[in-house]
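Dear support,

I submitted the protein below through the web form. The confirmation email said the job was done, but the results page showed an empty box. After a refresh the structure appeared. I'm attaching both so you can tell me whether what I see now is the final result or a partial one.
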Amino acid sequence: MKYACAGLLRMVSLKRVLAQLWIVVLIFPVPAIAALEFFSINDDAVIMYDAPSLKAAKLYVASRDLPVEAVVKVEGWVKIRDSEGTLAWVEAKALSEKRHVIVTAPLAEVYQAANASSPLVFQAQQGVIMEWLESAANGWVRVRHRDGQNGYVRANQVWGS
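What the results page shows now:
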């Protein structure tokens, strides 16, 4: 009986500690997890790995300005997600805070203002990468094409904003 009571007390105590820990996690999010934090690849050819190590298997090579979403950060490495949902690890030094978006619609329309009735500035085909300038109201993103033209595109036509 003595041992059963001690075990019960330990179990109750463990449940209390776990409940308190859960409250702490909800109030203070874990710093290793980044929610909707976007970056861009900052070099011409960056190797993406299946684990956070230079000895890990190489998955693919990403090119400059490719937008990626940070999922987890650990000691010089970042687990990223690309526009197709592929997860990979990349060295943190290969990422830039200068953000870009990639066109995911077959043809994105970029307008002079954040309004479809404003003049059309240009159209961009799927896969075109543009610099993200800011998120505007009502589901629009202000972008700049590499040739210098800028305007507003619907957020649902690009990824990385």
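Response: this is the final, complete result; the empty box was a page-load delay. The first strand starts at residue 33 and ends at 41.
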